[in-house]
Specification:
- With about 325 residues, the protein is an alpha+beta fold.
- The protein has three domains: about 100 residues, 3-Layer(aba) Sandwich (Rossmann fold), CATH 3.40.50; about 60 residues, 2-Layer Sandwich (Dna Ligase, domain 1); about 140 residues, D-amino Acid Aminotransferase, Chain A, domain 1 (2-Layer Sandwich).
- About 35% of the residues lie in helices and about 20% in strands.
- It is built from twelve helices and 13 strands.
- The strands form three sheets. Strands 8, 9, 10, 11, 12 and 13 form a six-stranded antiparallel beta sheet that branches.
- Helix 2 crosses helix 12 and helix 5 crosses helix 6.
- The longest helix has 17 residues.
- The chain is globular.
- The two termini are about 15 Å apart.
Length: about 325
């Protein structure tokens, strides 16, 4: 391979968050940038970095002036403005240049949890029952406890903490208020499936080996991927949450996970690489929680680990992602 490739990403800036782990999450994109840059070097590709900063119109203008054979899109949205992830993808789409990852429409579905859930329902993909609530309407909950409340338009576990799993009406309102205050939007409240958790990366139309999220937590701590579990190495959630790949599960269960993953991927209009999160209840039924159409592809993240389990080196993974961009152009 010998193309020249522009790597676009959101340049870390002073965070609106005060917690150090929030800041670590925002800066995490730099790990992926460095790894992709090194992989491109191994592939004999020339590359250059295009860091993007607010405001959005200036970032879009920067994208419009890119001259390259391929755009490697690592942009995750500006801090506090997750919707800009979609807008920058639209800017890439408007150019006559192949770009990696998913189209804007798929990114929009993945970012908007309500849109995702409605898409799953429409396509007959099992997903936990849900409602949209804010702090003015907690009494309108009609699904059974326990439930989990999530920001309706965030990713990377932003806004997910231990108290987001709610067991009674008395605890619901304070969580809804926090989500509305920090995200500016109502919460998605869904049935909490307290069972095994899996995720799978879909690469093109191929499902990579499945991972299981194994929780070794005290009984009073709900088994969920909190923000701390991803970004705070000092937290118990981080220390006692492990991703195991390949998952130690039956062939039947793995086959079902793969089937659901590819169906959810296609339902959301994906055609790049995506991660699908799934839970299994105590009766053996599986539910799709969400599709992440722009997952972390750092070497230590789940996507790369699953690729390694499939026998791919990190450089081979990046090569496939570029080839997909060229094929989809």
């Amino acid at each position: 391979m010998h193309p020249d490739i522009a790597i676009i990403y959101n340049k870390p800036a002073p965070s609106r968050y005060t917690a150090s782990d929030e800041d670590a999450a925002i800066k995490g994109v730099l790990n992926a940038v460095a790894a992709v840059e090194n992989a491109l070097l191994e592939l004999s590709c020339q590359s250059f970095l295009v860091p993007l900063s607010p405001p959005l119109d200036e970032a879009l203008d920067t994208v419009s002036r890119i001259k390259a054979s391929v755009i490697f899109n690592l942009f995750e949205g500006f801090d506090g403005q997750p919707e800009t992830e979609v807008e920058i993808a639209k800017g890439c789409h408007n150019l006559d240049i192949p770009y990696t990852g998913n189209p804007p429409e798929a990114l929009e579905i993945g970012l908007d949890k309500v849109l995702s859930k409605n898409t799953f329902k429409k396509k007959g993909i099992p997903t936990p029952d849900f409602q949209i609530l804010d702090s003015s309407s907690p009494g309108e909950l009609t699904i059974n406890y326990p439930v989990i409340a999530k920001p309706s338009q965030e990713d990377a576990s932003h806004g997910i903490y231990i108290d987001n799993v709610i067991y009674s009406p008395e605890s619901l309102n304070s969580v809804l208020e926090r989500i509305l205050l920090t995200s500016g939007k109502p919460a998605l409240v869904e049935e909490f499936i307290d069972g095994k958790e899996f995720n799978a990366t879909v690469l093109g139309n191929k499902v990579l080996p499945v991972s299981e999220i194994v929780y070794d937590l005290p009984s009073e701590m709900p088994r969920i991927l909190t923000f701390e579990s991803k970004w705070n190495p000092d937290s118990l959630y981080y220390k006692q949450t492990q991703s195991v790949c390949p998952a130690k599960t039956s062939r039947r269960d793995e086959s079902k996970i793969r089937e659901l993953s590819i169906n959810a991927y296609k339902a959301c209009g994906c055609h790049g690489y995506s991660r699908v999160d799934i839970r299994q209840d105590d009766y053996g039924s599986f539910y799709v929680l969400e599709v992440n159409p722009n997952p972390d592809i750092s070497p230590d993240a789940g996507c790369a680990k699953q690729a390694a389990a499939a026998g791919l080196t990190y450089t081979e993974l990046i090569k496939i992602i570029i080839e997909q961009a060229l094929d989809n152009s």
